[in-house]
Structure formats: structure tokens, C-alpha cells
Amino acid sequence: MNLLNNYSTNFMSTNQERTNAEKEQFKISNVGLVGNKFNITVQNTGSVPINITRLYVQNTTATDWFGKYSLNVNIPPTRSVSNIGTNIPLSGLSAISYDMKFVTSRGNTQQFSVNSVRTAPLLIQLIASPPSVASGFKSQLIMTVTNNQSGTITNLVPHISLNPGNSTTCVADQVIPSSYNTLPPGSTAIFTAGVKVTGNVDAQTCTYEAQLANGYAKNNANATITVNTVNLSSTTYAANSGVISDSYTTFSWTQGGLWHNHWQFPSGTITDFKITIQNNNATTGNYNLWLSKNTQIYLLQTSVPSNGKIFATPFFLTDTISSNPSTPPSLTAYDDYSKSIANAGGLATLYFGASAAGGSTQQTTSNLQPGTYFGFVLVYGKFAVNSGDNGSSYAQALPFLAVVMS
User: Fold this and answer.
1) How far is residue 202's CA from residue 184's CA, in Å, rounded to a whole number?
2) Strand locations in 302-370, DSSP E?
3) What is the pTM of this model?
4) Which CATH number among 3.40.50.720, 3.30.110.70, 3.20.20.10, 2.60.40.10 corresponds to the domain 26-115?
5) How many other CB atoms are there within 10 angstroms of residue 72's CB atom?
6) Residues 6 or more apart from 238 whose CB is under 8 A from it?
7) 3 or 111: which leads in pLDDT
8) pLDDT digits (tens, 9 = 90+) for 70-124
9) 237-405 carries CATH number 2.70.50
10) Would you give the distance in Å from CA 31 to the centre of its chain?
């Protein structure tokens, strides 16, 4: 009976150990070199504790060198342990490749490689985004390094430099991040750096080269940035840039008595609006933007109302409305091209509420159901010295904030 009992106990113990060994799973989550010491992080991905008892290391750059080191690293399930390798008599060099293997107390192993960036060429790419920018603006250099080798790469330090012979001035920011400690097989490291481009001749360029510090010879990539000069004149500004901007913080509405600058107001009540716009046209020669009576705020509901009809409702430009308007507000018709905004940053507050261009009749909101609306400020006008000049016609839609009618 004692013999049978011992056999049963040993069988159950052995079977449990075999089961635990099958459940034992772990992976190498990070490998780094700190002061020529390996700093390895191991994660227990299984459901049982593990104990790492051995580390085998082979220097594959010098194939006759081999080392075995005793460890006692206990890792509970789902937990990670770092700094493995820092307390053993093993010094590593970033210029050398190593094959390594961990062994657990249950006999399971995990083999991995630590390769040097100078061992073999890596897949390096450099992209300028956007590749063409206006003078004074920035492009972004994006350097990608893909580990196309079979082992983990350590100590990746990017080096992005300006090539000689450029026709424009380019100044790069610091590369972010400054390094990658490890890069597993198939993984990609991404580095970025902003580049400010300055030039006064269209199509001037600068070219950058990206490589890894102490990397494989001639393992690099290049990218070119082109400067585009934007010339705004009375005939070309509309083709190059939207030159009118608005200040959303100045948006206000009134239903009489006071102006309110929040975005919700009662529906079914006469409502007028105001907003400040800026003329950023850089054309010289005393040009102003003279506003057409067709300038308007254009509202459109975001969902189909209960009556099944969506109305696009314009509120046309009117003359100035007082700071304490009557209830309901009264409007004065706007005379075509009677108001102007100076070039080079001129500001003007515009008032909207008329139901038709150049009219003084209030636009009704009786057909606007409660709900959410979005809209645009549609600016029409001409750039001219005087309101009576033909000038150059100009129109622009400004993105407008959303409003809610309760």
C-alpha cells in the first residue's frame, strides 16, 4: 500500500510538473545596453510562475566566444522583470551581434538575437510631408527604420543631416525620439523632425539624408523639400489663397435689447447676427476689400425636421445695428460696396439679418425648426482702391460655427 501510495503521489507530482511546464510561457519584451551591460526585460505571458535559471550567450561576430551564466529570476504570471543581465559578468558592445537563450527551471527555453545596426543593412526611408511648402513654413521629415533581420536590433540612434549644394535655406529641429533601445524583427522605428524652409525663389530645394549612427555603410535614405513662393496680387490672390478670415469669438446674436455671444438661441423669433472678419490680402497699392450686398450668413439644418423639409436660410448683410437694438431689431438696408476692409490685416464687424440682398426686411425664423444648424459666412466683394472702381472680383466661403435653436 505504501508503495502504491508513493507511486500515485510521484505520478501526480510529475503530471502536475508536466502540465505546469506546458503552461509556462514568456517573452523578451525589451533588450537594452546600459553602460555596456545588458538590460533585458522578460514578461511572463503564461498562467504559472516561472524561474529563469540560465542565460547562454554567443558572440556571433566572434564565433569562438561562448558564455553561460547562472540566474535566479522569479516572475509571477502576467508580470515583467527588468534589469536581467546587469548583475552578471557580461559586457556587451553595440557593434557586436549576440545570440542569447534563457532557460527556466522547468527546462523551457526562449532564444533571441541581439544584432548591431552595422551588421547588415536595414530598411530605411525618409519622407518629407508635405514635400513642398511656402517660404517661412515647416515641412516634417519622417524617418522610418524597419528591422528586416531575424534578431532584435539594439541602440538605434538617428542621424538626419542636410546635404550640401542646396538652393534654399532649411533649418531642422531636433529629431524625436532621440533613440530606440530595441527594435524586434519586423518592427518599425519612426523618427520625426520639423524643418523650416526659407526662400524667395520658386522651386528652390534642400535635401536631407537619414541614416543610423554607427550604422551599416551607405545604408541611408534621402528626401527633398521644395519651396513654393506665394505671390498675392490684385489678379492672383484668389487663385493662391483664401485671404479672408473670421474670429469665431466675435460671433454674436440678438433678438433685441442685448447681444449674446453664445451659440444657442430660441427659434421662431426674429434674430440678427454679427461677426468680425479680417482682410489678410498682402497686395500693396491702397487696395481695400469692398463688400457686396450679396454677403450673407447661410444656415442649414443638420438633420431632417419633423415636417420633412430642410430650409437653407440666408441672412444678408445689413447696415450697422446698435449695441442695444430695439425689440424686435430694426434694420437699415446695406448699400452695395459701401463698406470696405483695408488690406494687410484690416478688420470689420459685419451685421446680418435681411431676408434679401440690399433689403431691410427681417429674415424670418418661423420656418426653422428647433435643432442643430451649421453654416458659412459667404463673402462677396471686390479688391479696389475706391468703391466705384471695377477692381478684381473676389468671393470666399468662411467656415462658420454651429448653432442650436431651442
Assistant:
1) 43
2) 312-318, 340-342, 346-354
3) 0.49
4) 2.60.40.10
5) 8
6) 392, 394, 395
7) 111
8) 999 999 999 999 999 988 888 887 778 888 899 999 999 888 778 778 778 999 9
9) yes
10) 29
In this structure, how many other beta carbons lie within 10 angstroms of the beta carbon of residue 70? 8
Domain coordinates of the chain in residue numbers? 26-115, 123-228, 237-405
- Which pairs count as long-range contacts for 71-78, CB under 8 Å and 24+ apart, including other chains? 71/102, 73/42, 74/49, 74/50, 75/26, 75/42, 75/43, 75/44, 75/49, 75/50, 75/51, 76/44, 76/49, 77/44, 77/46, 77/47, 77/48, 77/49, 78/44, 78/45
How far from 26 is each of 39, 103, 147, CA to CA, in Å?
17, 11, 22
Pairing of strands 296-301, 371-384: antiparallel
Over residues 331-365, the pLDDT tens digits come to: 999 999 999 999 888 899 999 999 999 999 998 87
From CA 318, how far away is CA 105, in angstroms rounded? 86
In the structure grid, which three cell numbers stand for residue 262, read together? 453664445
DSSP single-letter state for residue 333: P
Instruction: State pLDDT tens for residues 197-252.
Output: 988 788 899 999 999 988 888 999 999 999 886 555 544 544 445 678 887 778 88
- Confirm whether 123-228 and 237-405 share one CATH topology: no
Task: Please give the helix or strand (H or E) that residue 295 lies within, else none.
Answer: none
The residue with cell 552578471 is 88
Greatest CA separation found in the chain? 119
Q: Do 241 and 232 contact (CB within 8 A), yes or no?
A: yes
* Enclosing H/E stretch for 26: strand 26-34
Nearest to 261 by CA among 329, 323, 345, 334: 323
Give the tens place of pLDDT for each residue, 168-186: 999 999 999 998 877 888 8
Domain 123-228 falls under CATH 3.30.365.10? no
Residue that has been written with the C-alpha cell 431689431 in this structure = 329
Residues 376 and 402: beta-carbon distance below 8 Å: no
